[in-house]
Amino acid sequence: MIAVWGAGCVSPTVPRTPERATGPTERTVLGDWNDLEAAISRASPGAAVAPLRMDEADGVARFDLLGIDAQPASVVFTAERDWSVETGPVPIRVSATFGTPSDDGRAARLAAAVAEELETLGGVDYAP
User: Fold this and answer.
1) Which residues contact residue 57 at a Cβ distance below 8 angstroms, ignoring those fewer than 6 apart?
2) At what angle do helices 36-47 and 104-121 cross, to 10 degrees?
């Protein structure tokens, strides 16, 4: 299965703040809401997952993924403030689960990888 995701990276450049761990399987970073799909796409190969579907409503987006070992995984993004191109990057909480029951080690690595990609893409006009 091959999935193609778009990468929309448009916002003014802003200073970075350090990534903040908010739990073992969560990270909060500055990012652009329109970069969620690109962050998942960029982190998926290294995390050994493939995106299956995405749902988004009211500042929360959930991506369902499948690991190479057929284990289900998910990444949930929660905007801590409203985002627009004019406002630039905002704090976004990235949380993950991996497996049934959830393997916190794998979930933590998935959340960290996605959060790193989201922060890398935030505030730039194009995907690096």
Assistant:
1) none
2) 130
